[in-house]
Every structure is written in C-alpha cells, then in structure tokens.
Amino acid sequence: MEKHRAIGELGLVMVTVIWGSTFIITKLGLAQFPPFTYLAIRFVLAFGVLMMLFGREVLQAGRRTWLAGGLIGLILFLGFATQTAGLQFTTAAKSGFITGLSVVLTPIMAALILKQKTMPNVLVGALLAFSGLSVLAYNPEVAAGLNLGDLLTLLCALAFACHIVVVAKYAPNMDTGVFTTIQLGVAGVACSLMSLLLEKWPAHLITAWTWVGLVYMGVVATALVFFIQNWAQRYTTPGRAAVIFTLEPVFTAVFACFILNELLTWRSLLGGGLILGGILIAEIKWGKSGVQV
After folding, report:
1. Cα–chain center distance at 128
2. How open is the CA angle 101-229-209, to the nearest 5 degrees?
3. CB 100 within 8 A of CB 252
4. Which of 12, 206, 262, 264 is the 20 to 30 A CA-CA neighbour of 20?
C-alpha cells in the first residue's frame, strides 16, 4: 500500500511539472484566442484523443459512471469559468493568491463530503504550502478590498477543492480512461457553449506555434494530466493531493528561469521553500516507531 501511495503521489508531482510548463504556452494562446474558445479547443481536443483510446468503453459505460464523470466535468468547467471571469475584474496577483486557498479548503471539504478525518500534519502542511503561495503571489494590491472578480475567484478555489475531493470519492471505483474521457467531454461541451454565446472567432490569422501549443495543451496538459490525476488520486488523500499541487508555481518559476532566462528572486526561493516544507510535513507519518516519510 505504501508503495502504491508513493507511486500515486509521484504521478501527482508529474502533473504539477506539466502544469508548470504550460504558463508560456497559455500566455501565447490567450493572446490569439478568447479565453472560452481557447479552453473549448483544449478540452475538445483532449476528449477526441481519449475517445480514440477508450471510445468503445465510454459508449458502454453505465449510468453511475456517466453521472459521476459528468458531475466532475461540470465542476472542472466551473473552476476554469469562474477563474477566467474573475480575471476580467481583478488582477493576476489577487487571482493567484485567492485560487491558492484551494489547498486549505480541500481538507475541510474532504471532512464535510467524505467524512474523512484529516491528519494534523496534513493541515499544517497545507497552511505552510499556502504561506508559500502567498509569498509567491504577494503584491500590495492583494490587501485591497474585495471586488466581484475576487468573489468569482473564490468560487474558483472552492470548485478546484471540490474537484479534488469528488475525484477522490469516485475514482477508486471507476475505469480511469472512461472516467477521464467523460469529464473532459462534459467540460469541453460547457466551454464550447460559453464560447458560442459570449465570444467570436478571432479575425486574425492564428500562428502555427499557437496551434502547436494548443495540441500540447490538449494532448499532454489535459488528456494525459487528468488521466494521471484520476488514476493517482485513488492512492492518496485529497488533502495530500492539494498540498502536492501547490508545486505548480514552483515548477513554473523553474521553467521561466531556464527557458526565459528569468532570475530566481528571494521571493521565489522563499515561497518555493515553504511549499516544499509543507509537502514534506504533509508526507510525515507519526507512529509508535517514530516519524516516517
């Protein structure tokens, strides 16, 4: 069991590495596509790839699998939609700070939804990791009063926390390929509807590199990533998963350093150190034989 947990949590670390690599690609893509159109292409492409692999099983899936996968797909869409909408009214710094609250909210929601007791070390690790996120996202404007964008972003944090918890509830009893395909299909349909209702297709020519980036986002950063998450979360708790996911901005800083030649500031080093410390504390197991990791 411990071996499975280690492999599962290593898979979640891989997820954060991939997420960290997407910052530059997403920035390029959103410069050429409206946000919901970009998300729609990303999710529909991911859905298409998974349907080629698991299409027959998806069509034969039972009602429970469709309901669970559909629910998680809607939660996933809600998280991305509220984050996107929130950015129209607030700043990137405040958005990053508030979204980071999901790491603290996840153990609370796990206790409410799953009736799952959260170990004290996981709560301490979550708070320490959130402190690291706060350091990374710090900006004087973060302390400014709340606005509509902040409230929408808070809903985003709740949605992402809920996504982790609900995946933990259903993933152990589902076929990972089928489960993931349905989620991404529902999210893709919802994003497509928002795109058709609110946005127009870009009038300018889309560059080849943007399309290459979208393929990477759809195939690797969506289809592969959510497949790994849905598989890996069956071997760990929602609280530990949420703490591990705080590594994303750390890997983003590392990629920015090596690809964009950005310098690692004292804030990046301090914030990353706090996050790594939070993960280490969350991994500690207290037993009669002493401390184990």
Report:
1. 19
2. 90
3. no
4. 206
For the beta carbon of residue 42, count every other beta carbon within 10 angstroms.
Answer: 29
Helices assigned H by DSSP within 199-265:
208-218, 225-232, 238-245, 248-259
Distances (CA, A) of 6 to 1, 30, 137, 236, 284: 9, 36, 29, 9, 12
* pLDDT, tens only, 187-217: 999 999 999 999 998 888 888 989 999 999 9
Contact 291, 285 (CB under 8 A): yes
Confidence of residue 107 (pLDDT cuts 50, 70, 90): confident
Res 77: pLDDT: 95
The domain locations on the chain are 2-285
pLDDT tier at 288, thresholds 50, 70, 90: very low
Residues 6+ apart with CB under 8 A from 238: 106, 107, 109, 110, 114, 116, 164, 165, 168
Which of the pair, 179 or 146, is modelled with greater confidence?
179
Residue type, 64: R
Please list the residues that pair with 287 across neighbouring strands. Answer: 290
DSSP, collapsed to helix, strand or coil, labels residue 106 as helix
Residue 290 dihedral angles phi and psi, to the nearest 5°: 115, -160
List C-alpha distances in Å: 90 to 28, 93, 167: 20, 8, 29
Mean pLDDT of 146-153: 78
Backbone φ and ψ of 239, nearest 5°: -60, -45
- Give the DSSP letter of residue 12: H
Report yes or no: 109 and 242 within 8 Å, Cβ to Cβ.
Answer: no
* Other C-beta atoms lying within 10 Å of the C-beta of residue 198: 12
Check: CB of residue 109 under 8 Å from CB of residue 162: yes
